[in-house]
Structure formats: structure tokens, C-alpha cells
Amino acid sequence: MSIKSDHWIRRMVDEHGMIEPFEAGQGRHNAAGQRLVSYGTSSYGYDGRCANQFKIFTNINSAVVDPKQFDENSFVDFEGDSCIIPPNSFALAHTVEYFRIPRNVLTVCLGKSTYARCGIIVNVTPLEPEWEGHVTLEFSNTTPLPARIYANEGVAQFLFFESDEPCGTSYKDRGGKYQGQTGVTLPRT
Predict the structure, then answer these.
(1) Which residue is catalytic, options 72, 138, 162, 165?
(2) Which regions in the chain score pLDDT beneath 70?
(3) Closest C-alpha to 149, from 36, 46, 71, 47
């Protein structure tokens, strides 16, 4: 199993539509020339962007966080160019990009250092072979201060690992519960 390069990523986009929309280089400025947290293709990965729809965790109902019986009222929906996460809390968002992972590829996601150096952790589980959809992103604010996340800017790097043989059963084959998800997807059982 080896990590895949920028050449491979561009080829998979052209041949299989692996990432849509796709930035072939590194986007670092918006149309007005303002600096952004970079996104797009890097040497051995792809920096995905955060969309402008957020679910900010709140505990106004004193709910218990239970992945088997998740209370949607534990979130406040917000749409905007940036999102403020309360201290020691978290928010959910999704990628701008829609991913289609090839059958012989496992994709691992790591938060960008720009956010990590501010105490903001990005958590995403691996994207399994033949999974597709918008990636739901979890942002944890580990600081005692409010933290800002910027929409339409880079938040996490996706690394693609190609196996020397295809898996016997892919995420699609087993009918994974998050297959084809769009927008922010809450826990499912």
C-alpha cells in the first residue's frame, strides 16, 4: 500500500470524478485577492474545504450525547462565511467537495496545521473503499475561548492510499449507512 501523488489524484479526478468540485493547484486567495487557508491539490494529498452550513453543539436542553439516540435539538443550525464555536465545544460541517473513493483506495483525513495550532481539532474517520458523499467534518474547540472556522477555505488534508489488491467487500457492497450522504449528516444507527 502506498500514498498517492498529485499526478495520481489529478488522473483519478479526470478518469473517475473522484473529487467534485476539484482544485488542481493550491488555492490561496479569493476573487478579491484576500488570503485564504489553502485548499486543493498538494504533493501527496488534497486539502478539502468547509462548506458554509454548520451545526453548532449546544446543551440548552441538558441532553446526554448518545450516538444511538442522538437528539438533533442539541445543535443550532447556522449558515455563513465563518462559524464561531463556543469554548470547549464542537460544531459539525461538511466539505464543499463530493468524494468518490475508488475500490482499492483507503482515504485518511488529517486537520490542517493552521487550525491545529489554534487548538481546533478536525476529526474525520477514514473514507473506505467505494464510499462516496460529502464528508461530515467535526471541529472540536479545545480552547477556553471562542474559535472561528472559515467557510470555503481549507480545513483538512485527505491522503489516498492505494492497496496492491482490491478489497473483497467495499463500503458500497455492504450498503454502508453513510453512503451518498450530502450536507451535514448526524449519527445513524
Answers:
(1) 138
(2) 60-63
(3) 36
